[in-house]
Amino acid sequence: MKYTFKKHAKLSGIALAAMAALSMLETGAAQAANFAIAGITVNSVGFLDAAFKETGLGAGASINYTSGATDVGWLTQCFVRSKPVANIAPRLHVAHAADGLTTDRTLLASNRGTISSSILTAYPTAAENEGVPPLCPEVEGVTMTEEITAIRWCNATLTDTTTPLQGATMPELFLQITRNGTGTVPGCGALPGMPTNY
Predict the structure, then answer these.
(1) Which has the least CB within 10 A, 69, 98, 100, 146?
(2) Coil, helix or strand for 132?
(3) Percent of the chain whose predicted confidence (pLDDT) is above 70
(4) In the chain, what are the domain boundaries?
C-alpha cells in the first residue's frame, strides 16, 4: 500500500510539474508577441493603410486590431478633362476622431502564431447637405468632376488591442494625389482646432 501511495504521489508530482511547465510556455508565447513588421502609409486614393506582420501569437488566436487617426484634412477641386477649373477655388474638408476615423478588425493567427495583413481607413464620405451648393456647378455640355487633390492624416496608429501592443505610430502623413491641384492642406498643428466640415 505504501508503495502504491508513493508511486501515485510521484506520478502526481510529475503531472503537476508538466502542467506548470506548459503554463510557463503559454505565458512565454503570449509575452513573445511582437510586430515583426508594421508601417502606416497613405495609399493612392488617400486612404490610411496600416500593413503589418505580428508574430509570437498562439496558434489560431483571435486578435483584435484598431487602426486610425485623430484628424484628417483633404482638398477637393473641380476638373474638366484632367485640368483644374481656374475660377473655382478648392474646398477644404476636415474630420476628427469622433467622425469615425478608425477601423476595427478581428483576425485569426496561423498555426505558426502569425498574422500578416493590412487595414484600410477611409476619410469620411461627403454628405449632401440641403442648401449647400455643390463645389462644381452643372454646365451644359461640360463634364465637370470634383476630385480629391491632397490629403493629410494626423496621429495615425496601429494597435493590437487584445495583447495589448502598439504596432506603429505616425504623427503626420501627407499625400499630393493630383500634381496639378492647387491649394494646401493645413498641417497637423492646425487641423485639430478646425471645425468638422465634409
Answers:
(1) 98
(2) coil
(3) 81
(4) 1-31, 33-193
